[in-house]
Prior knowledge:
The chain is about 75% helix and about 0% strand. The chain is mainly α.
Amino acid sequence: MFNLKQIISSIADAGQKLFSIKNIKKNNLESIIPLCDDLISHKGAAFGITVARDITELYQSLSPEKKLLFFKQIKKNINPALKKLMKQ
């Protein structure tokens, strides 16, 4: 029987070795925001899984104040056209 969590973790571990992601600091928005940009701009499952895991770990290290700033910055960077989304 296979364990999906273990498989995804293995892919992320392998991706970590393949994709050198630098300048990652805990409790630091300047580390996590560029990773979010990378996640939505690059293709590839291994890269995406690796970056998503890094983002999750970094998010957990943020203080409550920085978590709020994180979501504000993501909203500013992505800025979805909500009216267009609602029409579809």
